[in-house]
Design a protein that fits this description.
Shape of chain A: globular
Structural class of chain A: mainly alpha
Radius of gyration of chain B: 22 Å
Oligomer: heterodimer
Shape of chain B: elongated
Strand order of the largest sheet of chain B: 2-1-5-3-4
Radius of gyration of chain A: 19 Å
Largest interface: A-B, 38 and 50 residues
Number of strands of chain A: 0
CATH superfamily of the largest domain in chain B: Alpha-helical ferredoxin
CATH class of chain A: Mainly Alpha
Bound molecules: protoporphyrin IX containing FE, iron/sulfur cluster, FE2/S2 (inorganic) cluster
Order of helices and strands of chain A: HHHHHHH
CATH topology of the largest domain in chain B: Fumarate Reductase Iron-sulfur Protein, Chain B, domain 2
Number of helices of chain B: 9
CATH superfamily of chain A: Fumarate reductase/succinate dehydrogenase, transmembrane subunit
CATH topology of chain A: 3 helical TM bundles of succinate and fumarate reductases
Distance between the termini of chain A: 59 Å
CATH class of the largest domain in chain B: Mainly Alpha
Strand content of chain B: 5-15%
CATH architecture of the largest domain in chain B: Orthogonal Bundle
Largest sheet of chain A: none
Number of strands of chain B: 9
């Protein structure tokens, strides 16, 4: 059994800093990147050329590799690895305490781990596959039923994790304080989850059927 | 029949079934033991435990050791009798047997070290209160005089927080209080908020923030929010935690910028 420990000897609130960087990185920049990514992919519903143009625009961001590395990879790896650690140190008791918020707490961690696995596979199939991303490439990708199902799971997990994570972020930063504010933000953000995941799934089918 | 007579008639025939998770001492293995207790009108869980103490015979009719538990006030103000009843932490003194589904399962709060049967050691809670300085320092070498007044509007919500009786229900229900991390517990954050809000207590608020920034501090809260559901006093623990998150983030940021 753990007891309350005395002041950490090696200084300045390391755990506090790591935890706060974890919640912050979930939104800025990782969450913002996820939104950007979902909207870029949604251009697939406007046809192949719309998507190819959107991808092309991204390819022309100056210092792309640097931007990608510093603003996406590093924060994502930090959030993901610390998230795995956080999911490991959390306890799980939804059987005994089946309150909605406790269930969502568990799902936040499950979707984090699913998203982690998904991102690795996803990067390996796309970013590090040696292909230039374009409509045709994504079409071929999602034409494999295994990939399609896995992509749908990834989209649902990631959008849930972002939406419910944003709810938790608002509490961790003392933005939604009282029960009513927290309830309203839960309703708004779970609606956001439904809309974002629907958008992601529709985009995948747009690539599949090439509309 | 009058109610009293009805009750007497029932009393002769009815029993209450208890399944109690027992443990000989701090290090031995837990085991379950079943008891059939004669029903009495309005009986609480403590009354049943007293009956076992008086006549320590289990459901199989074997003589056994009486079940150990703690209680004190018998009116839900001391917290000593808290245990897990049918899966939820609550005070056994205010737990009326008729309100529970049978068999009634009693377990100790395993988030704390179990001493024997239903008796647990809640020392970590008192250590936590010391750590966050959950008091108002008014001692001096001379008369410090009257402190500043408290606004009535603040007094009202502070009173709600002051109802905490360190029962441990919130600590038991919190998934983030476990062997893998050292979270101080929801009540301690709420108590720090209570004393930070007091006009005299406010003078030491930085010390309370510092305490909650250390290992096992406020950042270990993962917002599962079981605490606010199980608190027998209806203390708005999650509001306290969010309010303290706001204060402590601001405090640590301004402290860092000021260095
Ligand atoms: C698409 C990528 C991801 C996004 C947009 C994202 C976003 C977020 C956000 C916004 C939060 C809420 C922070 C808070 O509670 O204040 C969060 C929490 C969390 N994330 Fe992620 N995350 C992502 C990937 C991951 C991955 C790969 C893991 C690995 C397991 C993970 C694990 C966690 C955990 C465990 C929490 C809960 C932290 C807590 O409440 O203490 N996340 N995430
Ligand atoms: S906050 Fe409520 S549940 Fe927690 S110790 Fe105090 S009275 Fe018990
Ligand atoms: S005996 Fe004091 S709360 Fe039950």
């Amino acid at each position: 059994m753990s007891t309350v420990s005395p002041a950490s000897a090696n200084g300045v609130n390391r755990d506090f800093l790591f935890r706060r960087l974890h919640t912050l990185s979930g939104i800025v920049p990782v969450g913002m990147f996820l939104l950007e990514h979902l909207f870029t992919n949604a251009t697939g519903t406007l046809g192949a050329s719309a998507y190819n143009n959107a991808v092309n625009a991204i390819q022309h961001i100056p210092f792309l590799h640097f931007v990608e590395f510093v603003f996406i990879f590093i924060p994502l790896i930090y959030h993901g690895v610390y998230g795995l650690y956080s999911a490991y140190t959390s306890g799980y008791n939804p059987g005994q305490y089946s309150y909605a918020r406790n269930q969502l707490f568990v799902w936040q961690r499950i979707t984090g781990v699913v998203t982690f696995v998904f991102i690795i596979y996803h990067l390996w199939m796309t970013r590090f596959s040696g292909h230039m991303p374009n409509f045709q490439f994504v079409h071929d990708l999602v034409s494999n039923p295994f990939n399609l199902v896995f992509m749908i799971i990834g989209v649902v997990a990631a959008t849930f994790h972002l939406s419910n994570g944003l709810w938790s972020f608002f509490v961790h930063w003392g933005i939604t304080v009282g029960p009513r504010a927290q309830k309203v933000s839960a309703v708004v953000l779970l609606t956001m989850f439904v809309l974002l995941s629907a958008m992601g799934i529709v985009s995948l089918f747009a690539f599949l059927y090439g509309w | 029949m009058a109610t009293v007579e009805k009750d007497l008639a029932k009393q002769a025939t009815r029993t209450v079934r208890f399944i109690i998770e027992r443990q000989q001492d701090a290090t031995s293995e837990p085991y379950e033991e079943e008891f059939l207790i004669p029903w009495r009108p309005g009986m609480n869980v403590i009354a049943a435990l007293m009956e076992i103490q008086r006549n320590p015979v289990n459901a199989k009719g074997e003589k056994t050791t009486p079940v150990s538990w703690e209680s004190n006030c018998l009116e839900e103000v001391c917290g000593a009798c808290t245990m897990v009843i049918n899966g939820k932490p609550r005070q056994s003194c205010s737990a009326l047997v008729d309100k529970f589904e049978q068999p009634i399962r009693l377990k100790p709060m395993r988030t704390f070290p179990v001493i024997r049967d239903l008796v647990v050691d809640r020392s970590r809670m008192f250590a936590a209160l010391k750590k966050v300085k959950a008091w108002i320092p008014i001692d001096g070498t001379y008369d410090l005089g009257a402190g500043p007044r408290m606004a009535e509007a603040d007094r009202q919500w502070a009173y709600e927080l002051s109802k905490c009786f360190t029962c441990g229900s919130c600590v038991e229900a919190c998934p983030n209080v476990n062997e893998r991390q050292s979270f101080i517990g929801p009540f301690a954050i709420s108590q720090a908020r209570l004393f930070n809000q007091h006009p005299t207590g406010k003078m030491n608020r930085a010390e309370r923030y510092e305490a909650l920034l250390e290992e096992g501090g406020i950042h270990e809260c993962g917002n599962a929010q079981n605490c606010v559901q199980v608190c027998p006093k209806g203390i708005p623990l999650t509001t306290s935690i969010a309010a303290m998150n706001r204060d402590i983030n601001f405090f640590s940021l301004t402290k860092w910028l000021g260095h």
